[in-house]
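We modelled the chain as a single entity of 165 amino acids. Its sequence is:
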Amino acid sequence: LLNQSFSLSNVRDNIQQQDYSIVHIASHGQFNADLKNTFILMYDDKLSMDKLERLIGYTTIKDKPVELLTLSACETAVGDDRAALGLAGVALKAGVKSALASLWKVDDEATPAVIIEFYRQLQNPTISKAKALQNAQKMMLTDKNYARYRHPYYWSAFLLIGNWQ
């Protein structure tokens, strides 16, 4: 869902009507020690931790929990004593089996390269999510097409939380 279609009601309707094994949210957000000020931006609203938990909760009600939630915005795995692992931690609490999130501000050009390679690796059913992420990160180091992203800043922000299989 892009631009105007990335609304809270559209996301909720899609999650309620279809089974998704992977949900990817690529939007800017903010993590704050005050949970009321923690959110991901949507077109028409802010996706707070409570709203994210309710959205993901729909999948567990249907007995089809989301296998992987990717939060490729900046600092989506950053937490504190009140909200361990940030938005990704909330997703796990709500029933997602795994979350891929970032520990710091990510580069807008490098992030799609890492994530696309991660998904490409995931298409191999013999590779775990952890191995797919590792392979994607190694690709940033070794593939000449990604030479400009060799520095760890570009690829090492991503953290896989939950079920690594």
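As a brief sanity check on the tokenised model: The first helix runs from residue 8 to 17. Strands lie at 22-25, 29-30, 39-41, 46-48, 68-71, 98-102, 158-162.
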